[in-house]
Fold this protein.
Amino acid sequence: QKEVEQNSGPLSVPEGAIASLNCTYSDRGSQSFFWYRQYSGKSPELIMSIYSNGDKEDGRFTAQLNKASQYVSLLIRDSQPSDSATYLCAGTYNTDKLIFGTGTRLQVFP
Amino acid sequence: SQTIHQWPATLVQPVGSPLSLECTVEGTSNPNLYWYRQAAGRGLQLLFYSVGIGQISSEVPQNLSASRPQDRQFILSSKKLLLSDSGFYLCAWGRPWDSDTGELFFGEGSRLTVL
């Protein structure tokens, strides 16, 4: 069974710190990976995508992919209370589906 | 720009009653369409996906069904709801998978409570 695994948290970090969110996946055929942010009671919002090994930066967000280790991560620099949410990791399989992890809840305290 | 809408946003239904959730996409043609369910404290479970009109693939055996009567319309239905059908239902669209992207964009969600 294809799986994407995340620590459910909560991950608590102080305002201004770096939050590090991690994800592993089981399907070596997965090509594309995504991070979604989901506020309580709301639908997921895409914040980062990554397709090749290495780092990809967008503002305060950096996604990292290591296909050999089947590992994806998201770093949030200068964390803000507004970043408090559940972060969902997702990977493709069978070329037309996304499999999601259960999400990591991030809490940023002032 | 592309937009996706689903409705109703919230509904409370008795066990055994029917269900119909609707989703429409605007600003794109021939999208891939998806229904996910998110139970309380759980991840997103893929229920159905469609790559074209009348083409439906089911991921999980259950008492739910899906239909795609038009290119940008996706409907989730049930003839008789179970308590276990409660959850947050999310419709999503994606570009056909001959592109290099693969990301999905979600509607606002429909919260279903079965009593």
About this structure: Chain B has no helices and eleven strands. The two ends of chain B are 39 Å apart (CA to CA).
